[in-house]
Amino acid sequence: MFLTTKQYILVVFLITCVALPALAVTYGVQTKTAHCVANQTLPDPACTPGAVLTTDTSTICATGYTKTVRDVSLATKKKVFKEYGIPWAQRNNYEVDHLISLELGGSNDISNLFPESYLILSGARIKDNFENYLHKQVCSGAIIIQEAQWGISTDWLQYATQHTVNQNGRGLIHMLFLPKSLPLENPAPSASIPTSNPAGATAQCKDGTFSFSQSRSGTCSHHGGVSQWLY
């Protein structure tokens, strides 16, 4: 049976409405600006629902785009820390991150910002890698920009896991779930961090691994730096 042009358009419209209902979302509306829940893989959705600046892929995919729009003031960064109840003095342990990254059309609005920890297992470094991957997928046409924005703003870790499973590739798993500072061909045991300090360890690194160095110079230099000294 052959469809007329009008019938074909109607079928495509209905399939789109069924398959992508969650993409019709409203971003940028904070329902809470204090006592936000911090130090989790996902930001507090009431405080950081995400905000979109553009869905124009020709703009997003242009070389150097993020440099032209990156604009988060020091005052805004301090306000983000205050909303999440984190002392500004601890800022070196965090990245003020865009939930929907600039390279995916995200906004600099505070509703799109949260203090993302370097110290938790699925933290800032892993999300950064996934954002880079999504940018490439969007710019190649493999993923529509609205899906990428919705997926990363709803539950970025689950969305990353789904893409890892779908692609079924060892290299992709390494790209998504290893900190940038580690070589992809030699993964550290970041998936199972010991609950107690191993005997002889002198420092814990920011990626969760331990160092046994007897000198403080260069300790954890390939693991994001020192999280805490153990002696």
Brief account:
Helix content is 35%, strand content 8%. It has 231 residues and is mainly α. The chain has a three-stranded antiparallel beta sheet with strand order 4-3-5, with no helix packed on it. Strands 1-2 form a two-stranded antiparallel sheet.
How much helix, percentage-wise, in residues?
Answer: 25-40%
Kindly estimate the percentage of residues that lie in beta strands according to DSSP: 5-15%
Structural class: mainly alpha
Largest sheet: 3 strands, antiparallel
Q: What order do the SSEs take from the amino end to the carboxyl end, as H and E?
A: HHHHEEHHHEEE
The chain-level mean pLDDT equals 77
The global form is: globular
Strand count = 5
Number of helices: 7
- Distance between the terminal alpha carbons, to the nearest Å? 77 Å
Name the descriptors:
231 residues, globular, 35% helix, mainly alpha
Describe the structure.
- This protein has 231 residues and is mainly alpha-helical.
- The protein folds into two domains: 27-177, no CATH class; 199-231, no CATH class.
- Helices cover 35% and strands 8% of the residues.
- It has seven helices and five strands; from the N terminus they run ααααββαααβββ.
- It has helices spanning 5-19, 57-60, 65-69, 74-83, 124-140, 145-167, 170-177, and strands at 94-98, 113-117, 203-205, 210-211, 226-229.
- The strands form two sheets. It has a three-stranded antiparallel β-sheet with strand order 4-3-5, with no helix packed on it.
- A hairpin with a 4-residue loop joins strand 3 (203-205) and strand 4 (210-211).
- It is globular, with a radius of gyration of 20 Å.
- The N and C termini lie far apart (77 Å).
